[in-house]
Amino acid sequence: MKYKDENGNWIDIHVKAIDNEPLACTKIYFGTTEPNGYKFANGQELSRTEYAELFKVIGTNYGSGDGSTTFNLPNMNGRVPVGLNVNQEWFNTLGKTGGSTELQEHSHIQTVGGFPSVDGNANGSTEAYGYRITSLDVETSKVNMTLPTGSGNTGNLQPYITVNYIIKVKNLATLPPNAELIDENGTPSDTNTYNANAINELVKDVYSTKEQQIGTWLGKPLYRKTLQFTDTVDSATALAKPHGISNVDTIWIDTSNSFLKSGNSTFPLPQVCYYGSFTDRVGVHVDIENINMYSESGWGSNWLKIVTLNYTKTTDEEV
Questions:
Q1: Which of the four, 34, 57, 127, 152, has the lowest number of CB atoms within 10 Å?
Q2: Burial class for 171, CB neighbours closer than 10 Å (0-12, 13-18, 19+)
Q3: What is the mean pLDDT of residues 165-182?
Q4: Residue 15 — pLDDT band, cuts 50, 70, 90?
């Protein structure tokens, strides 16, 4: 956004932009204090009013708080996340928890085959002093063995590191990259960002003898300029006062901010009745070159004429 100051300089105003990370986004965080806009995902309760935008996103999926005014954040303490799977009973609902912190006692059955048995007959004469095997049968029977795992707190953990999980709870305004927050206004900048006080000063409803861009009118930039002059308006004679505005497209008098001033008194334009006199006829109009002023009785140089003009330019395109 740009603003034209009273010296005619265009000033860049970098308004803080909202970061684009969605609410309820969760991250691994190695810090020990909650960063701005985030809370630890430890199941804590938050106000449904103060964090209304977040509540719209996660609702009571991770806890209903006190049931009316608060809600819970997800509790990631000692847990790992798993993706939602509506076709899997264990993982089919957001916020569902499960698992066990220890390995339960159980048994394994092991089947072993191939144990041989030997069956033989020894035949020989009485003179024989030994045995010989003439036949051998091998039986491959099976043996079942039950191996208990034991009892007590038994875990099976992969290598791990303990961290914090943080969840985004509020949108924050951020500075443009490499920007600094500054108090001064009037200095053009492509990177720095004015703070709220500086912006308030820049966007005040300024009336100046220098051209000001004040908005848009029918799709074109709208400008304002206030002229002050003491030129004499002779009796029953029109004064053509050049306003010095170039490339005028449409121009008109801001009658709410145009008047005559004499001493401590002011009188509105274009119709003037002063000090009880109803006899002076006054006319004021503007064209692309001049402010045209007429007074039946005339105004001397002791009258300060203040005329505020609003206008568009031929050099601007409709937006």
A1: 127
A2: middle
A3: 72
A4: very low
pTM score of the predicted model: 0.42
Is the predicted pLDDT of residue 244 greater than 60, yes or no? yes
Q: Structure tokens of 118? A: 């030997």
Q: Report the chain's terminal Cα–Cα distance, integer Å.
A: 14
Q: What is the pLDDT of residues 245-270, one digit of tens each?
A: 999 999 999 999 999 998 888 888 87
Alpha-carbon distance of 202 to 3, in angstroms, equals 7
Q: Which residues contact 269 (CB under 8 A, 6 or more apart)?
A: 253, 255, 258, 259, 260, 282, 284, 307
Cα angle 266, 270, 275 (rounded to 5 degrees) comes to 45
**How confident is the model at residue 267, as a pLDDT?**
85
CA 241 to chain centre: 50
Beta strands 107-115 and 141-148 are antiparallel
Q: Which two tokens stand for residue 241?
A: 């006062």
CA distance 260 to 273: 11
Most confidently modeled of 209-223, 239-253, 260-274?
A: 239-253
Indicate if the pLDDT at residue 106 is higher than 90. Answer: no
- Is the C-alpha dihedral spanning 2, 36, 97, 78 positive or negative? positive
Give whole-number Cα distances, 306 to 7, 229, 241, in Å.
19, 7, 12
The number of angstroms, rounded, from the C-alpha of 275 to the middle of its chain's C-alpha atoms is: 58
| Burial grade of 162 (CB within 10 A; 0-12, 13-18, 19 or more) | exposed
Residues 6+ apart with CB under 8 A from 141: 113, 115, 117
Alpha-helical (H) ranges within the chain are: 52-58, 196-202
The confidence band for 101, taking pLDDT boundaries of 50, 70 and 90, is low
What whole-number distance in Å separates Cα of residue 120 and Cα of residue 132?
8
Q: With CA atoms as reference, report the closest residue to 146 among 107, 115, 177, 176.
A: 107
